Amino acid sequence: MVDVGLFISYILIGVCLLAAVGMPLVKAFGDPDSLKKIGMGVGALIVVFLVAFFTASGDNTSDASETTAKLVGAGLTTFYILAIAAIGGIVYTEIKKAAE
Amino acid sequence: MKKLLTLLMLAGVFTFSATAQEFSDSDAATDSAAVDSAQAEEVYEEPVEEIAEIIVPVEEEAPSQGFHQIVKEQFIDGGPTFMGIVLACLILGLAIAIERIIHLNMASTNTKKLLADVEDALGSGGADAAKEVCRNTRGPVASIFTQGLMRMSEGVEMVEKSIIAYGSVEMGKLERGMIWISLFISLAPMLGFMGTVIGMIEAFDAIAEAGDVSPALVASGIKVALLTTVGGLIVAVILQLFYNYLVSKVDSIVNSMEDASISLVDILVKHNLSK
C-alpha cells in the first residue's frame, strides 16, 4: 500500500516537472525573441560563474575535496559580484536621480 | 518633515542599543549557566555556545583571516550540497533583482519634463507632434501617453479609458519577475530548516550507533545542522532588502504614472478648449 502511494507521487512529481518546464520551453521555441532574452540572461550568469570558478582557489583547511572547495569558492565569488552589481546599480541610479 | 526624521533616527538608535544590550545580557547568562551546569546539563547547553562560536568568527575575526576564507570554511562545514542549493537561491534571486533594478531605473522618467514637452508640442504641432515626443521618450509613462494621444480624436473620455487600461498593462510589466524573488525569499529559510532537521536526524543516528550521548558527538552534529539555517536566513535577509527596494520603486513609478496621466488629461482638455 505504501509502495503504491510512493510510486504515484513519484510519477506525479515527474509529470508536473515535465509539464512545468517542458511546456514553456516548447512555447518559447515558437517565439525566438523571448528565447533570446532568456538565453542572454542565463549566458551572462554562466559567464560570471565561470570567471569566478577560474579565479577561485582550490586549497582549503577542511576535509572537502579540491573540486568542492573550488565550486564553493566560485559560488561565493559569484554572489559577491552580483551583490556588488546590485548595490552599485541602486547607488548609481539614486545618486543620478538626486543630481538631476 | 525634519522633525519626523530626527524622531525616527532617535527611535532607531534606542531600539538598536536596547537589542545590543539584550544580546550581551543573554550571552552572559548562557555563559554563566554553562559554567555552573553539571555534566548532564552541558549536553543541553552545548548548542547555544556552538551557535555563538559560529556567528562570532564570521563577524569579528574577519579581518585577521579573510572574510572569504571563513565563509568558505563554514560553508563546507555545513555540507556543500545543501548549502549549495541555498547559495543557488541567492545567486538566482540576485540575478533577477539586478535585472529588475536596471529595468525599473530605465522605466522611471522625468514626468514634469515630459508633460511640458507634450504641452509645447500640442500647442505648436498638434497631436502628431505630441505623439512623436512620447515615442522618443523611454519608459511606461511615455508609452501610456502615446496610447492616450492615439485616441485623442475620439474625445477625452476615450483617452481616459485607454490610459487606465494601458496603465494596468504597464504595471504588470513593472512587477514581472518580482514573484520569483519572493519565492527565493521564502524558499531559502525553508531549505535551511530542512537542512537543519536532516542534520539533526543524522546526529541522532550517530548517537544511536555510538550507543551513548557524548557531548562532542552531539555538538558537532548540531553545529553542522544549524549552519544551513544560518545560511538560509542570511540569504532571505539579503534578498528581502532588495525586494523591498524594488517594491518601493514600483510603487513610486506607478504613483508618478497615475499623477502624470491625470495631468495629461488636463492638458488635453485645455488644448481642446483653446481650439
Brief sketch in words of this structure:
Chain A has helices at residues 2-29, 32-55, 66-99. Chain A is mainly alpha-helical and 100 residues long. The termini of chain A are far apart.
Describe it.
- Chain A is mostly helical and 100 residues long.
- Chain A has helices spanning 2-29, 32-55, 66-99.
- In chain A, helix 2 (32-55) crosses helix 3 (66-99).
- Chain B is mostly helical.
- Chain B contains ten helices and no strands.
- Chain B has helices at 2-36, 39-60, 62-65, 67-77, 80-107, 111-135, 140-150, 156-175, 178-210, 215-274.
- Classes of the chains: A mainly alpha (100), B mainly alpha (275).
- The A-B interface holds A 41, 45, 49, 60-62, 64, 68-69, 71-73, 75-80, 82-83, 85-86, 89-90, 93, 97, 100 and B 68, 71-73, 75-77, 80, 83-84, 87-88, 90-91, 94-95, 97-99, 101-102, 105, 108, 110, 238, 242, 245.
Tell me the radius of gyration of chain B.
Answer: 29 Å
User: What is the straight-line distance between the termini of chain B?
Assistant: 43 Å
Rounded mean pLDDT of chain B is 78
Q: Give the H and E element order of chain A.
A: HHH
Which band does the percent of strand residues of chain B land in?
under 5%
* Order of helix and strand elements from N to C terminus of chain B: HHHHHHHHHH
Distance between the termini of chain A: 69 Å
Main sheet: strands, sense, barrel of chain A:
none
